[in-house]
Amino acid sequence: MDERDLLDEQTYRQARVEESLWRWAKNARVSRKRVLQILASAAGSALALRTSPPARAQQPQTGPGFDVSGENGDFDQYSDWFSKLTPDEYFISHGHSREMRWEKARDIGYTVPNEMFYLQNHFPTPQIDPSTYTLTVHGDGVSNPLTLSYNDLLALPSTTITRSQECGENGRVFFAKQFRMQFDGTQWGLGAIGVADWTGVRLSEILQRAGITAGARDVMPVGLDTPANDMEHLSARPMPVSKAMMDDTLLVYGMNGDMLPADHGFPVRAFLPGWTGIANIKWVGEIRVSEQPLLSLYNTEYGVMIGPDYPPTPPSTLGEIATLRNVKSSFELPWNAALPAGAVRLTGRSWSGKGSIAKVEVSTDGGQTYQQVPLKDPNLSQTWVRWELNWNATPGRYNLRARATDSMGNVQPELEKFNQHGYSYGGVVDHPVTIF
Ligand SMILES: Nc1nc2c(c(=O)[nH]1)N[C@H]1C(S)=C(S)[C@@H](COP(=O)(O)O)O[C@H]1N2
Ligand SMILES: [Mo]
Predict the structure, then answer these.
(1) Based on C-alpha coordinates, what's the Rg of the chain?
(2) Average pLDDT, the chain
(3) Which of 54, 143, 174, 347: CA 20 to 30 A from 6?
(4) pLDDT of 341-377, one tens digit each?
(5) Which residues surround ligand 2, an ion (CB under 5 A)?
(6) What's the pTM?
(7) Ligand 1 in contact with 99 (CB < 6 A)?
(8) Is residue 58's pLDDT more than 60?
(9) Whose CA is nearest to atom 21 of ligand 1?
(10) Measured from the CB, is residue 421 less than 6 Å from ligand 1?
């Protein structure tokens, strides 16, 4: 491919996809001839890469056979991955990740306290000494490469924003439910989300000081957690310069008024409002800036929506890079909650990576009827909103549903579209409740 072609956004994305396809083919021992066939056929690419046929017409399964309350397995090997305590009272453990228990959100305000905030690590939390820590900014996209200490960062102008952060895998277990097949990876319910006040330096401030060039295309924060012998899993994910230069794209060192906790990226993490969790690289020690497209595992093989409903860009693609998050809702109740009959105050939250929330409708009869519920303040863009409904509940088993619409008009669908990794389940969820 001619290098100049990469200046076109579509070609640029295509180049990433092709690289990723070749890698996939190597791992899966697919012949070169077959890869070329796939690349030659846009429609074929989606089919060839689909590991199992999705049952698209299937209705969601209800009943006791399905549970989001945890995984089976021995997670002892992960017992000291994290620095903070992750008591069962606050978290559902999935080994190298910890999901917030939604019922605990009922007791908190708009933000999630640091000790309750969900966790997702690919490697154990590194312990970094702030007195020797440095951040380097380098690459052919800067004319004045920089090395900054922790104190240098703290001395720069600071900004605080309140925004949600959510893992792209949030809700994965509902794909298993809808499609009745196993989706690999952490079987998250809806608790891989949190809202915090994030304090830090604008990334644009640092890039300007580093003399970002007019031709710079991509900016890639790199995490210090990657083991030296495993560069394949480099904790990094590029963003286009347009996102890096936005006013609310930050290098964060404070969370909810405290120092950023070790598990959440101390001393410094990237924070990209609205974008999928992996974009918020923790423990950033290096920022690469390039006039060429940058690639990482997390914008080629992972972090990519692969499926027949994510149209390939001709001549082919693996799929669509997950960036902005979709609309979701959760009740602040345990899964399979049991509540006494009478006046029940149902509470919950809805959120979107694309805007604020315009409307929430709740059903107590499994979706036969919905009623609109009042939204509480605040209702910040790319954050979440709280809502509640007083329900006069009589004994029986119920499926509660909440369906949100964001300010851009995106509505939660009844069923979600298939994607191979099971990212971004945005469909309306049946929350089982027993009234006794
Ligand atoms: N360096 C580094 N950054 C990372 C990760 C990681 O494993 N290493 N995990 C990512 C993922 S998948 C998510 S969802 C968020 C989780 O952030 P939290 O643990 O602070 O909630 O961090 C992202 N940043
Ligand atoms: Mo994630």
Answers:
(1) 22
(2) 87
(3) 143
(4) 999 999 999 999 999 999 999 999 999 999 999 999 9
(5) 120, 167, 277
(6) 0.85
(7) no
(8) no
(9) 119
(10) no
